[in-house]
Specification:
Length: 79
Protein backbone atom coordinates (compact mmCIF):
# COMPACT_ATOMS: atom_id res chain seq x y z
CA UNK A 1 0.00 0.00 0.00
CA UNK A 2 2.87 2.38 0.74
CA UNK A 3 4.06 2.39 -2.89
CA UNK A 4 0.52 3.23 -4.11
CA UNK A 5 0.40 6.21 -1.78
CA UNK A 6 3.86 7.43 -2.78
CA UNK A 7 2.65 7.65 -6.39
CA UNK A 8 0.05 10.21 -5.25
CA UNK A 9 2.55 12.50 -3.52
CA UNK A 10 3.55 15.65 -5.41
CA UNK A 11 7.03 16.01 -6.84
CA UNK A 12 9.48 17.80 -4.53
CA UNK A 13 9.78 20.88 -6.76
CA UNK A 14 7.04 22.55 -8.79
CA UNK A 15 7.58 22.69 -12.53
CA UNK A 16 8.50 26.13 -13.90
CA UNK A 17 6.88 26.89 -17.23
CA UNK A 18 8.54 29.89 -18.87
CA UNK A 19 6.22 32.28 -20.66
CA UNK A 20 6.98 35.43 -22.58
CA UNK A 21 7.37 38.19 -20.02
CA UNK A 22 7.59 35.93 -16.98
CA UNK A 23 7.03 32.47 -15.61
CA UNK A 24 4.26 30.38 -14.14
CA UNK A 25 4.81 27.93 -11.30
CA UNK A 26 2.27 25.12 -11.42
CA UNK A 27 1.22 24.49 -7.84
CA UNK A 28 -1.95 22.41 -8.12
CA UNK A 29 -1.71 20.51 -11.38
CA UNK A 30 -4.44 17.82 -11.45
CA UNK A 31 -3.44 14.28 -12.34
CA UNK A 32 -6.50 12.49 -13.69
CA UNK A 33 -5.12 9.48 -15.48
CA UNK A 34 -6.54 6.62 -13.43
CA UNK A 35 -9.82 5.53 -11.93
CA UNK A 36 -11.21 8.96 -11.01
CA UNK A 37 -14.31 8.68 -13.25
CA UNK A 38 -15.00 5.17 -11.93
CA UNK A 39 -14.76 6.34 -8.29
CA UNK A 40 -16.89 9.46 -8.79
CA UNK A 41 -19.52 7.40 -10.63
CA UNK A 42 -19.55 4.87 -7.78
CA UNK A 43 -20.11 7.67 -5.24
CA UNK A 44 -23.00 9.09 -7.26
CA UNK A 45 -24.59 5.65 -7.83
CA UNK A 46 -24.35 4.77 -4.13
CA UNK A 47 -25.63 8.24 -3.09
CA UNK A 48 -22.50 8.98 -1.00
CA UNK A 49 -21.56 12.39 -2.35
CA UNK A 50 -21.27 14.34 0.90
CA UNK A 51 -19.30 13.80 4.09
CA UNK A 52 -19.68 10.03 4.48
CA UNK A 53 -19.15 6.80 2.60
CA UNK A 54 -16.48 4.19 2.03
CA UNK A 55 -14.02 6.45 0.24
CA UNK A 56 -13.74 8.80 3.23
CA UNK A 57 -12.40 6.06 5.49
CA UNK A 58 -9.99 4.84 2.78
CA UNK A 59 -8.73 8.41 2.27
CA UNK A 60 -8.23 9.00 6.00
CA UNK A 61 -6.26 5.75 6.38
CA UNK A 62 -4.04 6.55 3.39
CA UNK A 63 -3.50 10.14 4.56
CA UNK A 64 -2.53 8.92 8.04
CA UNK A 65 0.11 6.62 6.52
CA UNK A 66 1.43 9.36 4.21
CA UNK A 67 1.97 12.00 6.86
CA UNK A 68 2.63 9.90 9.17
CA UNK A 69 0.11 10.83 11.82
CA UNK A 70 -1.70 9.07 14.62
CA UNK A 71 -5.10 10.33 13.41
CA UNK A 72 -6.57 11.75 10.20
CA UNK A 73 -9.96 13.36 9.69
CA UNK A 74 -11.36 14.45 6.34
CA UNK A 75 -13.39 17.68 6.29
CA UNK A 76 -15.92 18.38 3.56
CA UNK A 77 -15.00 22.06 3.41
CA UNK A 78 -11.29 21.43 2.96
CA UNK A 79 -10.35 23.48 6.03
Amino acid sequence: MRSDIEKLLPQPNPKLVKRKGGGIITVCEPKLGGNELKYVSECVRSNWISSAGGFIEKFEKAFKICCPARYALACSSGT
